[in-house]
Design brief:
The chain folds into 2 domains: 80 residues; 308 residues, Alkaline Phosphatase, subunit A (3-Layer(aba) Sandwich), CATH 3.40.720. The chain is 35% helix and 13% strand. The protein is built from 13 helices and 14 strands. A hairpin with a 6-residue loop joins strand 2 and strand 3. The longest helix has 26 residues. It is globular and about 60 Å long. The chain starts with 5 loop residues before the first helix and ends in a 12-residue tail after the last strand.
Length: 426
C-alpha cells in the first residue's frame, strides 16, 4: 500500500477545493512572525509615484530658469513661510506646514527597475544580495494582530522581501479599488457561494486531515510552517475586522468624494482604512509619471490633481483621528526627469536630481531640506542619496537603520549600509 504524505496530498489537490484553496494560497503569502520583544506603535504608508515624477514640475520649481527648462507651471506660496510648490497642488500647498520636502536626492540609476529597487530598499542593487523593501522589514519587526495582514500592497508589489524570505512579503490585492465596483481581495473576500460558516467547516475538515497524516511528517519543518501560516490565513479570512477593513462600501459618500472617485483616491481611502484597522504598512501606487511626451497635460490635467486631492484627504483624516504622530508617510518616485524639455513637450529620465515628501511620525513639517541648482540639474553641495532617504524613513517608523539581519550569504547584512538619517528632518 502506498502512503501519501500530507505534502503529497497538497500537491495532488486532495484538499485544494473552494475557499480552502484560498486559505492555502494566502497562507503561502502570510507568515506568523516570531515575537521579538520589540514593539512600535507606528504604522507607515508609502505612496509610490511610479515612472519618475518631474521634480521641477511638482515640488522644486525653477521660475527663473530659461523657458525650455522651467516649463509651463507656476509656483504658488504655501502655508510654510518661503516654501513654494506647483500651482496644480493647491490643497497640499495649504497643508505644507505638515510635511517636509526633501530636494536634491541624487543617484545614477536612470532605469525604472534598478531605480525603483534602489529607492525602495535604500541599498544600491547588487547581483549578490537582494535587499528587502520597507514594508517587508516592518512586517518582520512589527507584526500586525493575528487576524490582520502586516503588510498590504494595493494592486501589486513594488519590490519584494529579498533576503528576509517570502514569509515577510506583502499581501497584494491584485487590483485597485474602483468607484462603483465591488472590490474583492484574493483570500480575503469569499465568493458568493461560500459563507463564513461553510469556510469554517472546510477549515475544520482540513484540520481533521492534518491530524490523520500528522504522524508521517512530524519532523518536516516546512509542513509545520505551512500549518502555522495557514492558521494565520484562516484567522484573517474569518475575521470581521479584516473583511471590514477592505470594505469601502462602509464609507459615507462624503468620505468617498473627499478622497476622490478615481482609482488613486479609492486606493488612498483603502490605505487609510487599513491603517485604522491595525495593518502596519501599506503601499499605494500612482503610476503614469514616465512623461517622455505631453508632460504638462498629463501632469496638469490628471496626475497632480489626483495626488493633491487624495494625499490631502489622507492627511486630514489621519490628523482628525489623532493618527498622524503614529503614521509615517513617504511619497516618492524612483528618479526625476531631465531639466530641459525635449521636442515632444516631455521630459526624459534623470536620476541626478529628484524630490520626495515625508510626513507623520516625528517629521518636522513646514520645511525644505536640500536644494538643487538653478536649472534643477543636480543637488547643491552633496545632496542626499536613496540610502539617506531610507535611513530616515526607517527611523521615523521606529526601526534602527543599522539593524543587522542574517542572510544566506553567510554574514550579517546591515539594513541600510551607507545611509544616514537626514539632519533636521525628525
Amino acid at each position: 500500500m502506498t502512503t501519501l504524505s500530507r505534502r503529497q496530498m497538497l500537491r495532488s489537490g486532495v484538499i485544494r477545493a473552494g475557499a480552502l484553496g484560498s486559505c492555502l494560497s494566502l497562507g503561502q503569502l502570510l507568515r506568523t512572525e516570531a515575537a521579538t520583544g520589540q514593539r512600535s506603535d507606528r504604522s507607515a504608508i508609502l505612496v509610490f509615484l511610479g515612472g519618475g515624477p518631474a521634480h521641477q514640475d511638482t515640488f522644486d520649481l525653477k521660475p527663473q530658469a530659461p523657458a525650455d527648462y522651467r516649463g509651463q507651471f507656476r509656483p504658488v506660496p504655501t502655508s510654510a513661510p518661503g516654501v513654494e510648490i506647483c500651482e496644480h497642488l493647491p490643497k497640499l500647498a495649504q497643508r505644507a506646514d505638515r510635511y517636509s520636502i526633501i530636494r536634491g536626492i541624487t543617484h545614477s540609476l536612470a532605469d525604472h527597475g534598478l531605480g525603483t529597487r534602489y529607492v525602495m530598499t535604500g541599498n544600491l542593487p547588487t547581483p549578490v544580495i537582494t535587499y528587502p523593501m520597507y514594508g517587508c522589514v516592518v512586517s518582520k519587526e512589527f507584526p500586525a494582530p493575528p487576524d490582520l495582514p502586516s503588510f498590504v500592497s494595493i494592486d501589486r508589489p513594488v519590490e519584494g522581501p529579498g533576503y528576509l524570505g517570502p514569509e515577510y512579503g506583502p499581501l497584494s490585492t491584485g487590483e485597485k479599488p474602483r468607484f462603483g465596483q465591488p472590490f474583492r481581495v484574493r483570500g480575503i473576500t469569499l465568493d458568493d457561494t461560500v459563507t463564513i460558516g461553510k469556510y469554517r467547516s472546510r477549515f475544520s475538515l482540513r484540520n481533521d486531515l492534518d491530524t490523520a497524516f500528522d504522524q508521517y511528517e512530524q519532523l518536516d519543518e516546512s509542513v509545520r510552517g505551512l500549518d502555522r501560516f495557514s492558521q494565520q490565513a484562516y484567522q484573517i479570512i474569518s475575521s470581521r475586522r479584516s473583511r471590514e477593513a477592505f470594505d469601502l462600501t462602509l464609507e459615507t459618500p462624503q468620505q468617498v468624494d473627499r478622497f476622490g472617485r478615481h482609482d488613486f483616491g479609492q486606493s488612498m481611502l483603502l490605505a487609510t482604512r487599513l491603517i485604522e484597522a491595525g495593518v502596519r504598512f501599506v503601499t499605494v501606487l500612482l503610476e503614469g509619471w514616465d512623461t517622455h511626451q505631453d508632460n504638462f497635460n498629463t501632469l496638469g490635467r490628471q496626475l497632480l490633481p489626483d495626488l493633491d486631492q487624495s494625499l490631502a484627504a489622507m492627511m486630514d483624516r489621519l490628523q482628525e483621528q489623532g493618527r498622524m504622530e503614529s503614521t509615517a508617510v513617504m511619497v516618492t518616485g524612483e528618479f526625476g526627469r531631465t531639466p530641459k524639455i525635449n521636442g515632444n513637450a516631455g521630459r526624459d529620465h534623470w536620476a541626478r536630481a529628484m524630490s520626495s515628501l515625508m510626513l507623520g511620525g516625528s517629521v518636522r513639517g513646514g520645511q525644505v531640506l536640500g536644494a538643487t541648482d538653478a536649472r534643477a540639474e543636480g543637488p547643491l553641495e552633496q545632496g542626499f542619496s536613496p540610502d539617506d532617504l531610507a535611513a530616515s524613513f526607517f527611523q521615523n517608523i521606529g526601526i534602527d537603520p543599522t539593524t543587522e539581519y542574517q542572510a544566506s550569504v553567510g554574514r550579517p547584512i546591515t539594513l541600510v549600509r551607507n545611509g544616514q538619517p537626514i539632519p533636521g528632518l525628525l
